[in-house]
Amino acid sequence: MSEFRSRILGVGAYVPPRVVTNHDLAQLMETTHEWIVERSGIEERRWVDPGEGGAEMAAKACAEAMEKAGLAAADIDMLVYATLSPDVQFPGTGVFVQRLLGLRDIPCYDIRQQCTGFIYGLAMADAFVRTGQYKNILVIGSEVHSTGLDVSTRGRDVTVLFGDGAGAVVVGRSPDASHRILSTHLHADGREAEILWAESPASRNHPRITAADMAAGKHYPSMVGKKVFKHAVTRMPMVLMEGMVINDLKLEDIDMVIPHQANLRINQMVAKLIGLPEHKMHNNIQKYGNTTAASIPICMHEAIALGKIQPGHTVALIAFGAGLTWASAFLRY
Q1: Three-class SS of residue 189?
Q2: Which of left, alpha, beta for 188 (phi over 0: left; psi -120 to 50: alpha)?
């Protein structure tokens, strides 16, 4: 069986219109604009208003990606939805996006690799296109964090970091080597999974959540920040270098690096450690916060709009997140 190669045909993004600034958060908890910027680089983020969920945001991002790719609903034959914040406990949110877009009878995968979810989804799509089983695949990252955050001083270390939004790409067949996904590199290590997690509700517990759990804030995300930072600035350069070795690339061969937008200080440290010039890494966490699985496609979408990524450019996507998971993808856009 002959092997096809894949490429990104179109990129779309959507963020809700409601802007929440650091000054807004300072009205709800003991924090300041300066404190948040110093530690994370974040100045504002977008939060949904009632009635808007991950599926609705994802459908808008997908519609743009499909338009950019010149494809209609009937042309899409698979969907991969990455998130840590599904709209409901079950079924997966992918089928709700499918319904909103009018995609009939296609397979929908929902995956839970958190901040690296988009790259994991991209790897899945690349593999399916290579086999010839599917031709045009939507890969989505969409998150609603704002409805699950502890908006008090107790939760500020985590709450100030997160925003809502969605990004999507269409992955399809590539006719030539000038536009294609070159490689993907996926990793996980669960030995310290609890340093970044939301403990409750949990199906391993009966009942799944108690009043005591809620009083202790176990239904909110928690993070051991220093450990996460250390892992991120170690794993992200490693997985970037892994892809460079596989593709026989040097730093000067890479036109743009799009990192997961978890913390601007992490990304700046990664760039410093590998000697990457500032103009070769695009960040937009300052405006959107950490949108987890959505951050890379949202950031890539913006870099394309700004002309930082152009047809034929060599682009590296890198991420690190809960699990712990980390990944990279290399492509010629």
Answers
A1: coil
A2: beta
Domain that holds residue 215: 180-332
- Please spell the DSSP secondary structure of 34-65, one letter per residue: HHHHHHH---EEE-PPTT--HHHHHHHHHHHH
Active site residue 284: no
Give the integer Cα–Cα distance in Å for 141 and 260. Answer: 12
Half-sphere exposure of 218 (CA within 13 A, CB side): 15
Q: Which of 179, 185, 260, 282 is catalytic?
A: 260
Residue where one domain finishes, among candidates 130, 157, 173: 173
- The reply to whether 290 belongs to the active site is yes
Same domain, residue pair 48 and 156: yes
Q: Identify the sign of the CA torsion 284, 141, 40, 255.
A: negative
- Express each pLDDT in 311-323 by its tens digit: 999 999 999 999 9
Residue 1 maps to a domain: no
Please check whether residues 115 and 41 belong to one and the same domain.
yes
User: pLDDT tens-digit profile of 234-288?
Assistant: 999 999 999 999 999 999 999 999 999 999 999 999 999 999 999 999 999 999 9
Catalytic residue of the set 22, 62, 108, 115? 115
Residues 327 and 177 sit within 8 Å (Cβ to Cβ):
no
Would you say residue 1 has pLDDT above 70?
no
CA distance 12 to 2: 30
Average pLDDT of the residues in 16-42: 97
Same domain, 27 and 164: yes
Tokens matching residue 196: 């970044």
Kindly name the residue from 108, 290, 299, 301 that is annotated as catalytic: 290
Summarize pLDDT for 37-46 with one digit per residue, the tens. 999 999 999 9
